[in-house]
Every structure is written in structure tokens, then in C-alpha cells.
Amino acid sequence: MKINVALVDGLLPDKYGKYAEKETIKNGKPLISFPINLEDIPQNTKSLALTFTDPDSIPVCGFEWIHWTAANIPLVDAIPENYSQIAPESVIQGKNSSASPLLGETDKHAVGYNGPVPPDKTHDYVLKVYALDTELNLTSGFWMNELLHGMENHIIESSKIVLPSRA
User: Fold this and answer.
1) How big is the CA angle at 132 (ends 31 and 77), to the nearest 5 degrees?
2) Among 153, 144, 151, which Cα is nearest to 130's?
3) Who contacts 127 (Cβ-Cβ below 8 Å, separation ≥6)?
4) 3-state SS of the chain?
5) pLDDT digits (tens, 9 = 90+) for 82-114
6) By the number of CB atoms within 10 A of the CB, which of 6, 21, 28, 143 ranks highest?
7) Whose CA is closest to 36, among 65, 12, 66, 67?
8) Which residues are paired to 26 by β-bridges?
9) How far apart are the C-alpha atoms of 68 and 61, rounded to whole Å?
């Protein structure tokens, strides 16, 4: 399985992160997710799942920031822009790190896409897409560890791509 995300000068386009249009940013968080193109999805795939995280956040906040998790994505060659907000109800989205109790009050945008806002330098964000042999029994607002446990023994194939985003 191959993942492709269009970059601009080697970076995730500004409209999906820190420099997005003001009306698409809520509580300092960009909410318009980027389009994802997929190729060579295994034939026996029943659903797709994804994680989008920032390992470069570890020195900044002490943990890998979770920007987006989703499961039960139907078999598609392209996940369109803004999918986090327009996805069918059958797509289940998990909490992002804005839901962390370490941050105090939970943000109302703590489920779904939460775009990159690197505070110190360009960060390398990691998008992983999983081809699964089943749909997962999760509910909206699941934690990433629940997704990872739910996918155990159901991953047919996975692929990842690194998406740098500027500070």
C-alpha cells in the first residue's frame, strides 16, 4: 500500500497547519485535514484506519502529540480534504492530544483532526494508514491505544509517510 500527500516545497501545505486561514483555526488548532491518496490497497481489506502523530513534540511537551486517529474508513483511493469534518458517520474518529487531562480543561475539538502547530522548529509528522481485515468495534472519542489494541491481529498491511510542517 502506498500513501501520497501533496507537499509544497517539501512541507505540508500551510492551509492544514499553523498558517491556515484564521476562520479554519479554533482554539489555536487548525481543523481542515489534508487530502490523502492511496494506492495498492490489499484486495482482502475490509476497512482502513489512520494515525497522524508528531514524535518531534516529545522534547517540547514530553509525549508524542496525537493529531488525528480514525477507523472504519471505507475502501477509497482518496481521502478528501476536510475528511475529519465531512466523513460519513460510519467513520469513527478518536481523541487527539487536546483531550489530555494533563492540559487541564478538555477542548471541544479534542476528537478528530487537530493540525500541526510546531512551536519551535519544523517538525516531522508521521501519517500511518492501516489496511484491516475487519471493521473495528470502537466508539467516537476512542483513545489511540484502544485503536492500536483493536487492530492487533487485523492488520493486513500498513504504510507510513513523514510530512514535515514548518514552525
Assistant:
1) 55
2) 151
3) 3, 5, 36, 50, 51, 52, 160, 161, 162, 163
4) CEEECCCECCECCHHHCCCCCHHHEECCEECCCCCEEEECCCCCCCEEEEEEEEHHHHHHHCCCEEEEEEEEECCCCEECCCHHHHCCCCCEECECHHHCHHHCCCCCCCECCCCCCCCCCCEEEEEEEEEECCCCCCCCCCCHHHHHHHHCCCEEEEEEEEEEECC
5) 999 999 999 999 999 988 766 656 667 789 999
6) 143
7) 12
8) 29
9) 17
- Location of C-alpha cell 492530544: 97
Cell digits of residue 143: 483513545
Pairing state between β 2-4 and 36-39: antiparallel
Average pLDDT, the chain: 95
Residues 6+ apart with CB under 8 A from 39: 1, 2, 4, 77
What is the C-alpha to C-alpha distance for residues 15 and 165, in angstroms, rounded to an integer?
11
Q: Which pLDDT tens digit goes with each residue over 18-65?
A: 999 999 999 889 999 999 999 999 999 999 999 999 999 999 989 999
